[in-house]
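Support request, please re-run this one:
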Amino acid sequence: MLNLISSKQAAQLLGIEVATFYDWLSQSDAGQFSIRGQEVTISYFQGGRSGQGRIRIEEAEVKRLLDCMRVTPKSLNQRKPSKPKQQYNFISAKLGKPTD
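Re-run finished. Output below.
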């Protein structure tokens, strides 16, 4: 059985305003929504004859969005020591673009 919640409840669980939640849904519909650099599509239900009714979303979907928002520490990549630059001790001409 689906546990559907209202957009107001979903916004409260996500810690955002209802208007922000509606903006997220419209961005998701347009394929332009991302969380922490990861493209995300939000699945939700909208009732009414022409699809203009109340929005309902599964509680599991809200939990998935919360997981996408979770910050996890990442290990720093060890940098390789830089190689010493080659020195050209015997160059006597000026370096750069030749002038006429």
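The two ends are 83 Å apart (CA to CA). The chain is about 30% helix and 15% strand.
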